[in-house]
Design goal:
By secondary structure, the protein is of the alpha+beta class. The chain is built from nine helices and seven strands, in the order H-E-H-H-E-E-H-E-H-E-E-E-H-H-H-H. The chain is 49% helix and 13% strand. Helix 7 packs antiparallel against helix 8 and helix 7 packs across helix 9. The longest helix has 22 residues.
Length: 249
């Protein structure tokens, strides 16, 4: 359907988007996240997705619980609505001035299954914490969000000021250099992308990359951190997609 994007030194390799990925990317970037099938048919045409391929993908996505269907309108399922909220938060994170405190979560539950442990790790990672050592998770207390009540049964939550210098601790907890290098490569790729499919593929990668951004206070970041530039580029793309969707509608 789409060509592969190969990479050289300092570049990124982006796999082609499937019909499912194109539909999800469109809906995840649409508010409210639902579109009639006739609009979806027109919107996916620039990506080489034909009508029959789209309808087959829609049927599989409804059966898999990715989408819900009301008449001829397809929308995100509850599970993917939660993913859209995480994506929106990644693009527009709510922050507050940092006073030097760190959030600390200490896992207290025992006897959990491997699946339960993996689920907890995912939940803590989505809260943008990083594991200092087994069962101890940290991040600067610079995000304006409440601590989820449901985690109270498995982890204790504190704020603290570690003895380790903050910049040194942040560099130990997150691969900041690697994240920044990939972010700059994505920005360079966006500047070269010359068609709808390439740009869509690149912005899907930008969203995935922003989901892994620790959103640290500026004073803890390396120089030339590309987070703000990536967010600005994706916000512009969202407005472009929204305008295209309105035009088709």
């Amino acid at each position: 359907m789409h060509r592969n994007v190969t990479s050289g030194p300092g570049e990124v390799e982006l796999p082609p988007l499937s019909a499912r990925s194109v539909v999800l990317s469109l809906l995840l970037g649409t508010h409210p996240p639902e579109l009639p099938v006739k609009d979806l048919v027109r919107l996916v045409e620039p990506f080489g997705v034909g009508g029959s391929t789209l309808r087959a993908a829609l049927s599989r996505m409804v059966a898999a619980g990715d989408l819900r269907r009301t008449g001829s309108v397809y929308g995100l399922s509850d599970r993917l609505l939660r993913r859209q909220r995480r994506q929106d938060e990644a693009v527009h994170p709510a922050t507050r001035p940092w006073d030097g405190d760190w959030e600390m979560a200490v896992v207290t539950a025992t006897g959990r299954s491997p699946a339960e442990r993996a689920e907890l790790r995912t939940a803590l990672t989505r809260l943008r914490l990083a594991e200092l050592r087994e069962g101890v998770w940290l991040r600067p207390a610079s995000l304006a969000r409440p601590w989820p009540a449901e985690l109270g049964a498995v982890a204790r939550y504190f704020t603290a000021r570690p003895d380790t210098p903050a910049r040194e601790l942040a560099a130990d907890l997150w691969p900041l250099g690697a994240w920044a290098a990939e972010g700059r490569a994505l920005l360079a790729h966006l500047a070269r992308a010359d068609g709808p499919a390439d740009r869509f593929t690149a912005f899907a990668a930008v969203v995935r990359h922003l989901l892994a951004d620790p959103v640290l206070p500026p004073e803890l970041l390396p120089r030339d951190w590309p987070g703000a530039a990536l967010r600005a580029a994706y916000a512009d793309f969202q407005r472009e997609v929204a305008a295209r969707t309105r035009d088709h509608a």
